[in-house]
Amino acid sequence: MHDTGRAAPAPRDTSRPFTVLGVHHVAIGGADKARLTNLWVNLLGLPVTERFRSEAENVDEDILIAGAGAGAVEIDLMQPLDPARKPDVTRPALNHIGLAVSDLDAAVAWLIAQGVRFADGGIRRGAGGARVAFIHPAASAQFPLSGEGVLIELVEAVHDARDERVRQPA
Prior knowledge:
This protein is α+β, with helices and mostly antiparallel strands. It has three helices and eight strands. Strands 2-3-4-1-5-8-7-6 form an eight-stranded mixed sheet, sandwiched between helices.
């Protein structure tokens, strides 16, 4: 741990209206997705279950699944469509972590009320079609709480969606 000399603000409200259900996915960025694919697909044996491209997010992404059933976790391999454009999905290489939450609307509203900063774009559809919102990696004067250097994606939990992805390879 890294002591910055400042104490984290105490939560203003402890009646949290949502539950973090588990890790939904881990997103890894690289300049050349083929190199990532060689490790994760060819050597480690994870299946590619979906592909996603977004000009707005500057991403070409393969979605893999590690494990099965309720314990399955997505591994998202990403490269930029245009390395000169932002966002740069290769920095940091561990691009973000996705957490499944029980109630996305309640989570976002409550966390904002606690002073958590969210990235621009609000609640929207993510790569797998689920509703998502991103906790910003940096705090601001208005929102003093953040991911402290880590982009955190909150993913609305959808029952059985992960099981279906495991059974439906791309």
